[in-house]
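User: Teach me something about this protein's shape.
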Amino acid sequence: MLVAQLTDTHVVRPGSTYFGVDTAAYLRDAIDALHALDPAPDVVVVTGDLTNFGEPAEYERFAELMAASRVPYFVVPGNHDDRDAMRACLPPRTYGGSNDARVRFAIDEYDVRVIGLDANGARPWPGARLDDASLRWLDRTLALRDATPALVCVHQPPFRTGLHYLDAFGFGGARRLRALLAPRARHVRVISGHIHCVRVGDVGGARASTAPSTAPQVVPELFERRPFALRRERPGFATHAWDAARGFVTTVFRRADDGRYVPVAESAAAAENAPA
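Assistant: First, the predicted structure itself:
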C-alpha cells in the first residue's frame, strides 16, 4: 500500500499568484510526478491549505486540477480553507462525506486506513485544536480496527517542529491525542503539512511527519542564536509505504532544476528511509 501526500497547494483564482508563484502549475507538475512513480500510489491525500483564501472559485480550480489524478484523492482542510466552500465545490467522497461541524472521516476500503481530522479554529488562525468530539470519534474509530495500519491526516503537526513562530500558537488536545495513540503507536503514522517544510516528531510513540508544499516557498525560521532567517525550499511531496515487517516508510521527493522529482534525504532527523 502506497499513499502519496500533497500539501499546502494554496491554489488561487485563475490569473492570480501566491506570493508571485503559479501554484496551479506546480500542482499539475506534482500530479504528473505521482503518475511517473513505480509503483504508482494507491491513494493521494492532500493535507490542508488546498486554497489560499477559501473562495469557491479557488476550490473549483483545485477540483479541476485534481481531476487529472489517476488515483482517488482525499482532503483535510487547513487553516486557509473554508469548510463550507470546500464541501460545496469538491466531490463528497474526497472528504469522506463528512457533514460534522468539523471534517472527520475514515476510509476503510484499503489495506491502510486513511483517517482525516480537522483541527482548525477560526480561519486563518494558524493554531490548532482537536475538540472533545473529535478525540472521542478518533478513539472509537481506531478501536474498530485496532491492528489495522492507519494514517492519521491532520493539517497542523501535533508536535513541536522547531519553527517557533508557528509552535507558539499551540495545538490544543495534543496531550490527549498522545495518550490515545500510545497503545496503537506501532500501526499509526501521523502526517501533516502547514509548515511548508519537512520535520519529524513523535506523538505518543507514533511517528509523525510533515511534507513540503507542492509550490516553492520561502520558509521563515527563528533561531536561538539569530533573531530571524529565511530559507528557500524547493517544492515537493511525500509518499508513505506500509510494510508489514518495517511499518510505515516515508520518502520525500523534491523538484530538481530539470523539473524531475527525485527522492532526497532532508537531514539526520528527516523523512525515514529517504534515499539520497
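Now, about its shape. The domain at 2-264 is CATH 3.60.21.10 (Purple Acid Phosphatase; chain A, domain 2). Residues 267-276 have pLDDT under 50 and may be disordered. If you'd like, I can walk through any region in more detail.
User: That's plenty for now, thanks!
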